[in-house]
Design goal:
The protein is mainly α. The chain is built from 5 helices and no strands.
Amino acid sequence: MLIGELSKKTGFSRDTIRYYEKLGLIKEPARNGTDNNYKNYTEPVLKRLLAIRKIKDFGFTLKETQGMLILFEEGVLEHERGNRYVKRKIALIDNKIKELEIIKKDSRKLCIRLPHRASARSTKYWPIWW
């Protein structure tokens, strides 16, 4: 299948698919050998891209995704190791949520401190600067 069809089936843009080729996340396909010399993507590439999409949807970075795929393909990503990987990611997400809650709380405090009738041009009342 050509890159346009692959893009539609995976939801990844053509540029993203090419970028993943460059990173080695997917193998660069063979050219079709005709005059136009288009790349012919195979079903395994489609399946791999769909797996990448799923892993990314769970919040894993491309580097983490690549690591998981390599471990899986080498047959060393057994159930327990995979669980540890996911639990570690959950802990990182929980920490990020705590950080965002603090930012949210501080932002609300800032809004309360803002004067309601300050001139739109005046910066002397803008408490974020002090």
